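User: Could you check the structure of this?
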Amino acid sequence: MKLTFYGLWEEEKPKLQELSEKYGFEYAGTNEVLCPENLSLCDGSAGVSALGKRAVDEALLSELARRGIRYLSTRSIGYNHIDLKAAKKFGIRLCNSQYPPDSVAEFTVMLILMCLRKYKQALWLQQVNDYSLEYLRGDVLSRKTVGVVGTGGIGGRVVGLLSGFGCRILCHSEAVRPEIAKAAEYVDLPALYKESDVITYHLPLTSATRHMLNREALAGMKDGVILVNTARGELFETEALIEGVENRKIGALAMDVFEGEDGIYHVDRTDDILRNRNMAYLRQFPNVVLTQHMAFYTMLSMESMIENSVEGLLGFIRSGQTKFEVKF
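Assistant: Sure, the predicted C-alpha cells are below.
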C-alpha cells in the first residue's frame, strides 16, 4: 500500500519514516505543494496527504479522483482551503490533523504580553541604541479583562493559561464547555466586546465567521482594545483594522495570520516585491505585530501533524472510518 505526501517539511520526514515502518506502508513524498504539475507522483496511491499552503480546488480534486484517489488528508486543523462541495461531488473523503493546542495557545499568550508591554517598540528603539523608557510604559495582564472568542481545543487551552495570570476572562462559543466555565464566564458576543480590554480569536473560517471583526464589531468594543488573531486572517476585515489602528480605536494588534497571506508566508521573498499593500501598511505601525503564520511551528505540532495524517488515511483505507474525518 502506498501513500503520497505533498508539502513535506524536513521536520516531518524522520517521523514519516518511523510511521512507515510501524504501520507497514510505502510512501512517496515531495516538499512541493500539491499542484497539477506533480499529480503523477500519487499514481497508484491509496491516499494523499497535503499541507494547507495552497487551495485544493475542483480541478485538483477532479484529477485526484480520476487517478483513483478516494482519501485526502490535510496536515492542518483548518480545511477552508479545500473545496468541500467538489470533494463530495467526486466522492473524496477528507480528514484533518488535530495537533495539541499548546503551541498556538502559548504563542497567543506571548502576543498578548508583547502588546501589553510594548515589545515591538522596545526592539525598534534598541536597534538605534535608544534605551530610554519614554514610549515603553506598559500594562499588567492581571488587571485586564480578556475575551476569548471560541473555546475549542486552542481557545480552551488559552483560557487555562490565562487563568494563571489572575485576569478576568470572558468567553463566547457555540458550545459551552463546563470545564472552561470554571475559569471563565460565558457571555454573548456584544457583552464580550463591550467589557474586554483584550480579545483573542480562536475560530475556524466559515461563511459565518469571515470578516466577523468589522467596523460594526469594532464600534462595540472599548477604545484602545487589544486584538489578537492566531486562527485565520480572513476572520478580520483588513480595511476595518486599518481604520481602527489609524483612529486609535485599536490600541494594539497582533496577528500570526493575514488576509491574502498565500504566496507570501512560508516563502522566502527577500528579493521580491510583495503585492499586499495592506500587509505592508499595517506592519509599519509601532503597535502592530505581524508574525508569519508560525504559531503552530514546534516539533510537538509537526510530529502530531504527520502522525494524525497517516493514522487518518490508514483508518479510511483499513476500516472505512477515522476519528479525524471532516464531515460535510
